[in-house]
């Protein structure tokens, strides 16, 4: 196992890269090499995309019910393989065991739901008549249907390498596309295990491929390849670079967030504090929908901060194998970035509610009170267990700060006044507003989208299926009747 290099997957086979090179997957807890994966070459990427293009042609003609049948089969196999996949997640991305198992089960459920939704959605078209438009007779009939795009490139992030892969794979496949998966380095082996489940389900050869390698070597080559017909990407700033370089193809981008939590003076503070701790610190804050900023009305700020701090004291900190609440963040560079934000806040006078503690990639949970807008932590996304609190004098001040961000993914409002909640939701320039709950991506059939630098397009099972298809019309032109229509 020590020297094993996991193979990449194409044309229904597991292959060794001709490059002779591998990429190391570092265990965030031990900071030592845990696994190695193939470093695929550009020539291999070319072959993968060509085989995906060929496989798509036959798959597009496969009946919907057959596509759905294979997806249901893959979902069952995923559930049966939950333990080995979860073990990889624990070692590759330091995800606590219980959360790792949940991710695999949620992914299997997503695949099944997607199969059902695809059959419903794609099994019907529209029928239009020409006499509904001014000046036209009833001489034309138009039938529309949804057809696949071709080859979909799926690029998931490290934090949910299985769930955010299948949220792209399942819609692509049910819609009749073929799929090339480029997993993140941290999470690559879990993704390969997941692809193995699709392999065991018996999908046609070449329909699903998984290429591993350094983004710096094959990333741009993949995302600008003329054989790719659609890109679905979840991640950070890289997505902005991809969207600038990609050709004239549909893009689905879910990027960063600085999800703000606005607490009004009439809020249920116990509910708000629980939601802030769960939303801000689960999986060590390494989620695009994590609470990343608390904007609290001054009159209740002391009470809220006290409640949050009491809950933070109860969080367990340590290795993911022990199911600790706070586990090491994914890389040393991430840890250093988080520390730089913390030191900037210290230098500018933020109140540290806990002592700042770090051991390697393990950072203890930290609440920063009295944060001001001249501090980096007020605007930048730490992607770690550090949460800033800004005290505000009015709702307007909170909305202004939220909308001044270059991000616009999610946010939340805590109040007992539903009218004010809806008005604040309308005013927040973000993709989703949660009322009296922390931001969250799921359930996976809900629409999920960001504004501004947080993304392009909308996800969620139905939206993804629609985005990975295009409308085709067939128009029947009737001749002038040679008989009386009376």
UniProtKB/TrEMBL annotation:
Active site: 254
EC category: oxidoreductase
GO molecular function annotation: glyceraldehyde-3-phosphate dehydrogenase (NADP+) (non-phosphorylating) activity; lactaldehyde dehydrogenase (NAD+) activity
A matching Pfam family: Aldedh
Gene3D superfamilies the UniProt entry points to: Aldehyde Dehydrogenase, Chain A, domain 1 (3.40.605.10), Aldehyde Dehydrogenase, Chain A, domain 2 (3.40.309.10)
Signal sequence region: none
Keywords per UniProt: Cytoplasm, NADP, Oxidoreductase
Domain Aldehyde dehydrogenase: residue ranges: 17-473
One GO cellular component term noted in the UniProt record for this chain: cytoplasm
Protein name per the record: NADP-dependent glyceraldehyde-3-phosphate dehydrogenase
Protein's organism: Handroanthus impetiginosus
């Amino acid at each position: 196992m020590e020297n094993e290099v996991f193979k990449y997957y194409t044309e229904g086979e597991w292959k060794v890269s001709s490059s002779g090179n591998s990429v190391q997957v570092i265990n965030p807890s031990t900071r030592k090499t845990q696994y190695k994966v193939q470093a695929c070459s550009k020539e291999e990427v070319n072959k993968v995309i060509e085989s995906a293009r060929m496989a798509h042609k036959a798959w597009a003609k496969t009946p919907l019910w057959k596509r759905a049948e294979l997806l249901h089969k893959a979902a069952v196999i995923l559930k049966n393989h939950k333990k080995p996949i979860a073990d990889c997640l624990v070692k590759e991305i330091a995800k606590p065991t219980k959360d790792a198992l949940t991710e695999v089960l949620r992914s299997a459920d997503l695949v099944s739901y997607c199969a059902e939704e695809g059959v419903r959605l794609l099994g019907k078209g529209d029928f239009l008549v020409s006499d509904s438009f001014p000046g036209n007779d009833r001489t034309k009939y138009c039938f529309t249907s949804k057809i696949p795009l071709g080859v979909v490139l799926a690029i998931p992030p490290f934090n949910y390498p299985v769930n955010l892969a299948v949220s792209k794979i399942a819609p692509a496949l049910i819609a009749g596309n073929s799929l090339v998966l480029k997993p993140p380095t941290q999470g690559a082996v879990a993704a390969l295990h997941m692809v193995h489940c699709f392999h065991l389900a018996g999908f046609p050869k070449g329909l699903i491929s998984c290429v591993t390698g350094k983004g710096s070597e094959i990333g741009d080559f993949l995302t600008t390849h003329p054989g790719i017909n659609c890109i679905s990407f979840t991640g950070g700033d890289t997505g902005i670079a991809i969207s600038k370089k990609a050709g004239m193809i549909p893009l689905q981008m879910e990027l960063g967030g600085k999800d703000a939590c606005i607490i009004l003076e009439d809020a249920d503070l116990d509910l708000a504090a629980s939601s802030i701790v769960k939303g801000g610190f689960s999986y060590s804050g390494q989620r695009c929908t994590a609470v990343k900023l608390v904007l609290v009305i001054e009159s209740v700020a002391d009470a809220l901060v006290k409640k949050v701090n009491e809950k933070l004291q109860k969080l367990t900190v340590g290795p993911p194998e022990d199911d600790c609440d706070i586990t090491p963040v994914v890389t040393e560079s991430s840890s250093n970035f988080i520390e730089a934000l913390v030191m900037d806040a210290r230098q500018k006078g933020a109140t540290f509610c806990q002592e700042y503690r770090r051991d390697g990639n393990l950072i203890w949970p930290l609440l920063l009170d009295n944060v001001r807008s001249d501090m980096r932590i007020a605007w930048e996304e730490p992607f770690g267990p550090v949460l800033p609190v800004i005290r505000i004098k009015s709702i307007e001040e909170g909305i202004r700060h939220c909308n001044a961000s270059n991000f616009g993914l999610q946010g939340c409002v805590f109040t007992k006044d539903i009218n004010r909640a809806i008005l604040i939701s309308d005013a927040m320039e973000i993709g989703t507003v949660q009322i009296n709950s922390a931001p969250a991506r799921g359930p996976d059939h809900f629409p999920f989208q960001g504004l501004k630098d947080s993304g392009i397009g909308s996800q969620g099972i139905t939206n993804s299926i629609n985005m990975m298809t295009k409308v085709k019309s067939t128009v029947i032109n009737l001749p002038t009747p040679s008989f009386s229509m009376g």
